[in-house]
């Protein structure tokens, strides 16, 4: 049996970081950092936070603009009301969202995680409270490692009170998408809400407190499926937060006035600020890691250091693996185009479905006990049950009629009134002279016309049976 040598690639980092912002308690102590990307992240975070809190407060045509009314089985999204019969719209919307995420990830990496993910936004909010109450990262580390004192207990109590307050507000804001918002807040604080409301508000508050206050990056690295399958969407042209190894190595401290090139040093002064500001607790200089959320904190930290040293910025930057290896960077590629095309097609299908959604739905059920009968006048009579749903937010009056039938008698109301979201069950019968029936089974059409709006007509097909 011949022996063949297997070539093994050594992926061990050549330079181990001297500093990590992960304490002995496995807690990540994130240093505060300002810069272009951190300002962008902060503004986007506040925008989505305010949007999340404010959307349930808007009213539209007498009802809450966005309300997922589970009890009444309807979803209000501004002028659109979605019933269980229209849940395909939600499926299309989720598909559009999924392919939009695939497209953005293939092009810009995990920018969703760094700038728009609720886990990231709430984590940075909690870190902000932590910093304002307990101090900088070093002070927080010393406080946690120090003995229990009155000052420590006071700061911890204040911090956790702030966290719990934010968590309860978050739980209430989330429930406001399922329960009318003014009723929710009034009943909750006057202790008049139902047990289900209190359970779900406190449940989401507990999840927010645990995820953003304690678990933080553990959610991103161990529990979020996106962190696991993102590699399937990455390629060598995906924009990532990358460290320019060729420019930065060999790293090491030096004087600002020293000629570091003459000493064989790269541009990295090994200040470790890129590690101290990382919310995931990694060293970006070790290469691409799935824990990285592309928040750009290390870029801002490194750019400030480069500016102080009078070096060009961009030692750490948004780049691609090909650019780091001095290879051509392809912006347009088959995977990216494929995601974009599918996302566009799904978006068109969703828009067409929304535009063509009917404000009234009618189902016709024939009498199955007697397909037809002969009445006292000798006419053939068929009985139908019309199930009519008013899918608008207003009470509607409809006119009922039938087409594609010979002379007939109509037994039942010709005009009906249906409340918003109501399912009206209306039995009607049709009677036709047997001499006018040329076939044993004829196709007929029931027509609903909205009173005052002759331009809208809804038609549903059925059958009239005279012989088996």
From TrEMBL:
Keywords: 4Fe-4S, Electron transport, Iron, Iron-sulfur, Membrane, Metal-binding, Transmembrane, Transmembrane helix, Transport. This is Cytochrome c oxidase accessory protein CcoG. One of its GO terms (cellular component) is plasma membrane. InterPro entries: 4Fe4S_Fe-S-bd, 4Fe4S_Fe_S_CS, Cyt_c_oxidase_cbb3_FixG, Electron_Trans/Redox, FixG_C, Helical_ferredxn, Ig-like_fold. GO terms for molecular function: 4 iron, 4 sulfur cluster binding; metal ion binding. Gene3D superfamilies: Alpha-helical ferredoxin, Immunoglobulins. The chain crosses the membrane at residues 43-60, 87-108, 162-185, 197-214, 336-357. Residues 259-287 form the 4Fe-4S ferredoxin-type domain. The keyword Cytoplasm does not apply. It holds the Pfam family Fer4_5. It comes from the Bacteria.
């Amino acid at each position: 049996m011949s022996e063949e040598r297997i070539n093994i690639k050594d992926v061990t980092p050549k330079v181990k970081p001297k500093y990590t912002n992960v304490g002995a308690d496995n807690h990540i102590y994130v240093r505060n950092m300002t810069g272009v990307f951190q300002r962008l992240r902060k503004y986007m975070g506040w925008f989505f936070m305010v949007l999340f809190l404010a959307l349930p407060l808007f009213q539209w045509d007498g009802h809450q603009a966005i309300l997922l009314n589970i009890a009444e089985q309807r979803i209000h999204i501004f002028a659109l009301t979605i019933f269980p019969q229209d849940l395909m719209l939600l499926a299309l919307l989720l598909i559009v969202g999924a392919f939009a995420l695939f497209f953005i990830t293939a092009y810009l990496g995990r920018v969703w995680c760094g700038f728009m993910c609720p886990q990231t936004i709430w984590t940075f909010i909690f870190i902000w409270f932590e910093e304002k109450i307990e101090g900088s990262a070093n002070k927080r580390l010393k406080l946690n490692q120090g003995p229990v004192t009155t000052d420590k207990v006071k700061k911890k109590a204040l911090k956790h009170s702030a966290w719990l307050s934010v968590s309860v507000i978050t739980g209430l804001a989330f429930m406001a998408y399922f329960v009318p918002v003014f009723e929710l807040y009034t009943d909750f604080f006057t202790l008049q809400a139902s047990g289900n409301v209190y359970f779900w508000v406190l449940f989401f508050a507990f999840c927010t407190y645990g995820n953003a206050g304690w678990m933080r990056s553990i959610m991103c690295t161990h529990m979020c499926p996106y962190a696991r399958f993102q590699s399937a969407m990455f390629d060598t042209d995906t924009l990532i937060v990358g460290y320019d190894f060729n420019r930065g190595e060999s790293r090491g401290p030096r004087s600002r006035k020293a000629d570091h090139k003459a000493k064989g040093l790269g541009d990295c002064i090994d200040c470790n600020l890129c590690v101290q500001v990382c919310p995931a607790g990694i060293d970006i200089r070790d290469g691409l890691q799935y824990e990285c959320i592309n928040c750009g904190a290390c870029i801002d930290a490194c750019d400030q250091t480069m500016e102080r040293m009078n070096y060009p910025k961009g030692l750490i930057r948004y780049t691609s693996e090909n650019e780091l290896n001095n290879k051509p960077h392809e912006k347009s590629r088959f995977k990216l185009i494929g995601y974009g095309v599918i996302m566009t097609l799904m978006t068109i299908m969703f828009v067409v479905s929304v535009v063509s959604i009917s404000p009234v739905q009618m189902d016709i059920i024939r009498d199955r006990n007697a397909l037809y009968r002969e009445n006292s006048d000798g006419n053939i009579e068929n009985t139908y049950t019309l199930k009519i749903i008013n899918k608008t937010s207003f009470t509607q009056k409809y006119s009922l009629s039938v087409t594609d039938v010979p002379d007939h008698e109509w037994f039942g109301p010709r005009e009906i009134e249906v409340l918003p979201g109501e399912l009206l069950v209306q039995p009607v019968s049709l009677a036709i002279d047997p001499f006018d029936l040329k076939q044993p089974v004829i196709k007929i059409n029931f027509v609903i016309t909205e009173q005052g709006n002759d331009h809208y007509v809804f038609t549903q097909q059925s059958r009239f049976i005279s012989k088996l």
